[in-house]
Design brief:
mainly beta; 8 strands; 1 helix; single chain; 4-stranded antiparallel β-sheet
């Protein structure tokens, strides 16, 4: 936050104490980054876990991106179906997923759509 932002927040705090304005809880400062969903601008926010990027058109557009060194990160990919049934339970569908945490972060695996009821996993060859 630069000095102009701090000055602006102080002015708002004074006016809000006089019930003229409310102090914003999130930054609405436009950036040069466009929302991939609706083409409005993205805004950098901070919560207790750190920074993240959200669309200024919230709640109509609920896109959230991680922060990657002050810039919007990549959107997390959803599980992709293989079209095959699970060989372990016979009811679920095999899904291609990516590991999000730990030493194997970023590696892909195939798992059952019925997880945690079915714990079938098979690692794809990018180990």
């Amino acid at each position: 936050m630069d000095k102009t932002d701090q000055k602006w927040l102080r002015v708002l705090a004074v006016h809000s104490s006089q019930n003229q304005y409310s102090v914003p809880t999130m930054s609405t400062k436009p950036t040069e980054f466009a929302c991939p969903s609706c083409n409005n601008h993205l805004v950098r926010h901070k919560n207790r876990y750190g920074y993240f990027w959200g669309c200024c058109n919230y709640p109509e557009c609920q896109l959230i991106l991680p922060d990657a060194e002050g810039k919007p990160g990549k959107q997390r990919q959803t599980a992709q179906s293989t079209g095959e049934t699970c060989p372990e339970c016979g009811q679920g569908e095999r899904l291609v997923r990516a590991i999000r945490k730990g030493q194997r972060r970023g590696q892909t695996f195939i798992g059952c759509s019925r997880f945690p009821a079915c714990t079938y996993t098979e690692f794809v060859g990018n180990q």
